[in-house]
């Protein structure tokens, strides 16, 4: 009876020992494996990740490298290309190079990388996790406020785009109407200029005719004076004409005596008729219709109205009025066309999935580092300034990394090197500002820009899940910060 009892007790001890050994072996077998990869190791036969070989479950973490890529030894230092995963409950998990496993140095804050017993590593994740959790909470608070600002900016951008599109449509309609008006004003102006040119030619001809008549009269007076002087010298002085002279004068009065006198009379007659016509309103063969004052308007009728008389001053004012309207309308048309081109160029840009970068178009951002001032103008260019010297770091090219960075390229060339370029990496922040410009490679610049536009709601949810996970692990480990 006693023998049977002893035998049963011995069998029970063996069973318990086997269960403990099995549990320990199972625990060690998944050491160093990430949670998302645990299912990969559940089958009895496992493939190396690069497909080169297969190994059975017993070969997992047996401290012998079967797979060149280290698939079979995630928890040992046997494979030179292996990775060890630190769980770090209560803190952030990390992956170490396999060479750091059991090397006598505590690399994981939970001490899981030194499990061979040679070194005793205290679990410092809880204390370290406090700082991490605090930073994570602050980051989440910034993201929450940033997401709110971003939503507001997206709504503003949509309203601004609708307003700009409406303005563009009105400008195009105005351009069409103004083109027609400018065309009519130009025709009106050209007609007025033709009238003015004809009047100028008429006046020139009148002046030439008058000068010719005046010149002829002066010559005749000189000849008459000379003849009288000679007669006086030969016949003596006499105040009264002789009888023969009186008879001759009476018989020839009002009649031309030669061709010259006939020409003079015709010229005087023509000039008299022209001058008279200026006051009576009658037209001669040399006159043309003139633009009457205050007859111009912006309607469809752009014909030259007939003259109502000699109103040179008023006609001059009317001509000047037409010219001024033409110049003003031409200037206005040019301004409208310039604005149309500007809006068209703006609206064709890539402003993001929700048009969230719309207000970046007309802005520039600056930061000063050491002796340089860096200036970034999205959709335009980027530069580095030192006093009066300006170096172009690049022209706007595009967004990269799902609107996570802005690229400027084809800047000024380096000495015996490539053209300069700048990549601006975006980060979540409560205000938009340019920071931390550096040159990691020759002529290749990198800058950071914080902005609420990059405070994405999806990223906020990810951070909140991360914080919740850290808190859950903390509670599971029996730690409470309170």
TrEMBL record:
Residues 224-234 have a biased composition (Low complexity). InterPro entries: Gtb1-like, Man6P_isomerase_rcpt-bd_dom_sf, MRH_dom, PRKCSH, PRKCSH_N. GO terms for cellular component: glucosidase II complex. One of its GO terms (biological process) is N-glycan processing. It holds the Pfam family PRKCSH_1. Keywords: Coiled coil, Disulfide bond, Endoplasmic reticulum, Signal. Residues 1-25 form the signal peptide. Residues 211-223, 280-289, 308-331 have a biased composition (Basic and acidic residues). Residues 211-331 are annotated as: Disordered. Residues 151-208 form a coiled coil. Residues 362-457 form the MRH domain. PANTHER family: GLUCOSIDASE 2 SUBUNIT BETA, N-LINKED OLIGOSACCHARIDE PROCESSING. This is Glucosidase 2 subunit beta. It comes from Salix udensis.
